[in-house]
Amino acid sequence: MEKKVLVVEDDPDIADLIEIHLQDLGYLPEVVGDGLSGVDRALNNEYALVILDLMLPKLDGLEVCKRIREAKKSMPILMLTAKAEEFDKVLGLELGADDYITKPFSLRELMARIKAIIRRVDAVKEEAHSDEEPVSLTFDELKIDTEKRKVTLKDEIVELTAKEFDLLVLFAAHPGRAYSRQELLDIIWGYQFDGYDHTVNSHINRLRSKIEENPSEPKYIKTVWGVGYRFVELEELH
Question: Residue 58, exposed/middle/buried by CB under 10 A (0-12, 13-18, 19+)?
Answer without folding.
Answer: middle
